[in-house]
Design a protein that fits this description.
heterodimer, A: mainly alpha, two-stranded antiparallel sheet, 12 helices, 67% helix, 3% strand, globular, B: mainly beta, 8-stranded antiparallel beta sheet, 5-stranded mixed beta sheet, 38 strands, 12% helix
């Protein structure tokens, strides 16, 4: 997760609460709330130190790399979200895994770029890389949660408000609807209880996945229809991965579908860019 | 040609280096914690590690194979999971002949428990039937999950408390000749679904009390389920398990349940418990390892308990506690606590916990399992500390392996998808996909970690002959043949009872203590021996049950290393009496009676 921070309101002197509700602060505040509520009530974190290590690594990496490659000090909020996401989603008894995952996540934004755009959601990349490469030392957040409805509803309500305000609720809604529909299809195919197929989306990993990862503006396509199509595609790829018993199917599905969608969008953009100048170049005088 | 900035080249190199880091870390850790030798060469093991095990159950006349419970047919789909416990082993000298005997439980309705009497010649004979403690898994009474021994009436003979999913049973030992069922007279409740219990004298009155830790709620009859909503409500935060019982010994063969009065109130899913005086306060504290949740540590203030898990650091991060064992691993006169959990590569890395007491004010623990190299043990169950090579430091023997069925198909995916779900899904067994013969962390290699005395443990299981791949549950350590070495007895779920006979290289000395209380309980449970030698000290205490579903030899075994200079042994009896033994010589069993 690495939510892009939208520019602040341009209205003069907005009230403090309005500024806090501004989308620049909402995602970090929300994810911090999840962290604190989850940890104070259920102790979801391996430890505060490990999460802090991930946050510090993430912000430090962002500041250094941003300064070097963007020639400016980037706003630390999105790196903060990446770090805190790593702290929540990664499970490992070792400290180095948190630092490495956060560093990989942030570095991927600068190292894996195409047409000046980073193509993987940073924390999705970092966590998947760790699951691929360090499976003996790490696991993803899957069962370390209170399993009760109260925490689930709080997160869903708050998360829905956040993504609604960010105009990305349709992504979450499309994914959730697709997941549920495909769960019943999977239950029909496998013969397993449908409750067991629905179960994952009631678990902790999905709360962060559906509100933060798949909705990340920087790594999703531009059009509303395209975003819905990508969300549906992620659910479909996940569906097949789940039939293949992949424990981290949603993370892996996003890992493959997200960049693919961006590549397709960029390819379509370049085609359009070639076509439009050709179509309009005839009667126009050539620019110097 | 477009010029690539140096910064971008450096970034790419750094990025690739980061991607390669896990492989590097794996290489480093495999060099450090690589299981020694894939094949057993006893001579080489003796030369290199100072000991070697040989599995001798058949030669010893023991051909016991555990039978798992078969519960209500509503649970058929996940029967391997819900019926995954019951194999246990406890060591007792039930006839006071000076030789350890072995009691093992069976868990299918109608199956028999076995009491193997030590024949003093390397063999054992099952005498459970004639002693009256074999046919204890009758229909309608549930099945055995474990056994703990303690002389509750101070008549000199160890009595038996049978831990069950079902009707708990207390058997009085009639002079080593027979056992008499005294459950009803003792006032025990009609049904407890427990996997852990221990004897302790929690109030120091000289009579053994009994702690019983429920797993499933006590109103659940697993053979006649009203419904399938009997699973934990959460994988790591469940509080809908069985209640805890503290039976205060009234002294006339009767017990009074006093848990609430004594400050114990928990419905976590307990799987293991152990008691020792962790603070030197003169009363045994109680450590409870809970499945599906945090561990609990009950500090004992003059007979009243106070749960201090979070305060002491052991009760914060929830895991799947399945073992509780104490060991003075640094020879500093302080107990560390080993709690086993689950680790499955790429799915769930809880890691086992080695809680080591920290210097400073009050009792506080830090988990040093990773630092010391005893963190990853697969789906771990029972573990025991003991000096296996008599080098003067405590080693660690760990059993593991959950469900070994198919060698190619795993249930982990289905397990993880339900276990993370909402409580209404996870708590109902009918929502769990069927096992269909799949394994769940099966066929795992056991761990025998030897302590180098300098802060590291090394796994030598394969090299020293512990090569079985059964679904290990309980392990008990005992000097079965009175040779001054610790042998290991392993109970496997749906598998054979294994006797690992230990051979220790010549040169390392030992000493053992056999304690008998007078003012204190006669079993001397809770008595603590601190041995001083070669400028170091090691503390051990007599336990009435520890590990997972197990009880070690009552006698305390100390390895001494080469040419030891024994200073003294200080015994603190549960009554508070202090006794110092001087002029000790190595390689002997010292019988000590509490001064009256």
């Amino acid at each position: 997760m690495n939510w892009t921070i939208v520019a602040p309101s341009t209205q003069p002197n907005p009230a403090l609460w309005k500024r806090l509700l501004d989308s620049r602060f909402m995602p970090p505040v929300f994810i911090t709330l999840i962290l604190l509520l989850g940890n104070l009530s259920f102790g979801i974190l391996e430890s505060y130190q490990k999460t802090l290590l991930a946050i510090v690594t993430s912000i430090t990496g962002e500041l250094i790399l941003g300064r070097i490659f963007l020639k400016k000090w980037p706003h630390p909020a999105s790196a903060y979200i990446t770090g805190i996401s790593v702290g929540i989603l990664l499970r490992s008894p070792a400290y180095w895994t948190y630092a490495l995952c956060a560093a990989l996540s942030i570095t991927s934004k600068y190292a894996l770029r195409f047409r000046n755009r980073h193509i993987w959601n940073p924390s999705n990349f970092g966590i998947c890389a760790m699951l691929f490469l360090a499976s003996d030392s790490v696991a993803g957040l899957s069962i370390q949660w209170g399993n009760n409805f109260a925490s689930l509803i709080v997160i869903w309500v708050l998360g829905s408000i956040i993504v609604w305000r960010a105009h990305r609720f349709h992504i979450t809604a499309t994914y959730v609807a697709s997941f549920i529909a495909l769960s019943f299809l999977r239950a029909w195919i496998t013969g397993d209880p449908w409750q067991s197929e629905i179960a994952p989306i009631t678990g902790p990993m999905y709360q962060l996945f559906i509100f933060f990862m798949i909705t990340d503006p920087k790594t999703t396509v531009r059009t509303r229809a395209g975003q819905c199509a990508v969300a549906f595609s992620i659910a479909v790829v996940e569906f097949f991965m789940r039939l293949g018993s992949s424990v981290y199917a949603p993370l892996y599905a996003l890992f493959w579908v997200g960049p693919t969608a961006l590549f397709i969008e960029m390819w379509l953009d370049s085609r359009r860019a070639r076509t439009i100048p050709a179509a309009v170049s005839g009667p126009q005088p050539a620019h110097p | 040609m477009k010029r690539i900035p140096i910064a971008r080249i450096v970034l790419t190199i750094v990025f690739i280096a980061m991607l390669a880091t896990p492989a590097l870390m794996r290489r480093l850790s495999s060099q450090r914690g690589k299981p020694a030798a894939a094949q057993t060469d006893c001579a080489a093991a003796l030369a290199r590690y100072g000991f070697c095990f040989q599995e001798v159950s058949h030669q010893a006349g023991i051909n016991f194979v555990h039978e798992a419970p078969i519960l209500d047919s509503k649970l058929d789909g996940i029967m391997p999971e819900v019926a995954s416990m019951g194999a246990s082993v406890s060591i007792v000298d039930f006839d006071r002949d000076g030789w350890p005997d072995i009691y093992v439980t069976n868990s299918r309705i109608g199956s028999l428990n076995h009491l193997y009497r030590n024949n003093h010649d390397g063999t054992f004979t099952d005498v459970a039937k004639e002693m009256g403690i074999a046919d204890v898994n009758q229909p309608g009474t549930g099945v055995s999950m474990g056994a703990v021994w303690g002389d509750y009436d101070n008549d000199g003979y160890e009595d038996l408390y049978l831990i069950k999913w079902g009707r708990p049973e207390l058997f009085h030992n009639d002079g080593g000749k027979h056992f008499t069922r005294v459950t009803d007279a003792a006032g025990l409740p009609p049904w407890i679904n427990a996997n852990s219990a221990l004897w302790l004298d929690y109030d120091g009155d000289g009579k053994l009390d009994l702690f019983v830790a429920g797993y499933y709620p006590e109103n659940v009859d697993l053979w006649h389920l009203k419904n399938t909503r009997m699973m934990p409500e959460s994988f790591e935060y469940a509080k809908n398990g069985g209640r805890k019982y503290l039976f205060h010994n009234l002294g006339n063969g009767r017990f009074e349940e006093v848990s609430a009065k004594a400050g114990i109130d928990s419905r976590r899913w307990a799987l293991a418990s152990a008691a020792a005086d962790l603070r030197g306060a003169g009363y045994p504290d109680l450590f409870v390892a809970n499945d599906y949740g945090v561990s609990e540590l009950y500090l004992n203030d003059h007979g009243h308990f106070r749960e201090a898990g979070q305060e002491t650091g052991v009760g914060f991060a929830p895991k799947s506690g399945m073992n509780a064992a104490f060991g003075d691993i640094f020879n500093q006169g302080k107990y560390s606590v080993y709690v086993s959990n689950i680790s499955e590569e790429g799915v769930l890395i809880q890691g086992n916990n080695l809680w080591v007491p920290q210097e400073g004010k009050g009792l506080h623990y830090a988990n040093l399992a990773r630092d010391l190299g005893v963190e990853l043990g697969g789906w771990s169950f029972g573990a025991q500390f003991g000096d296996l090579n008599n080098d003067g430091t405590l080693d660690l023997f760990l059993e593991n392996g959950y469900i070994s069925l198919s060698r190619t198909r795993s249930y982990w995916y289905d397990f993880s998808k339900v276990a993370g779900g909402n409580s209404s899904i996870i708590s109902d067994a009918s929502h769990w996909p069927a096992f269909d013969g799949r394994s769940l962390s099966g066929y795992q290699q056991k761990k025998v970690w030897i302590n180098d005395g300098a802060g590291k443990f090394e796994d030598v299981a394969q090299a020293v002959g512990v090569t079985d791949l059964y679904d290990g549950r309980a392990v008990a350590l005992a000097d079965l043949w009175n040779t001054g070495v610790l042998d290991a007895v392993v109970a496997n779920q749906r598998g054979p009872l294994l006797i690992y006979k230990n051979s220790v290289a010549l040169g390392n000395d030992w000493i053992e203590f056999d304690l008998e209380g007078t003012k204190s309980n006669r079993s001397a449970i809770g008595a603590q021996v601190t041995l001083f030698w070669n400028g170091q000290q090691q503390v051990q205490s007599v336990a009435g049950g520890n590990g997972f579903a197990s009880e070690n030899d009552r006698r305390l075994h100390f390895g001494l290393g080469k040419n030891p200079q024994l200073d003294k042994a200080v015994i603190r009896w549960p009554s508070g009496t202090m006794q110092t033994l001087d002029h000790l010589t190595p390689n002997q069993l010292v019988h000590v009676k509490e001064p009256s």
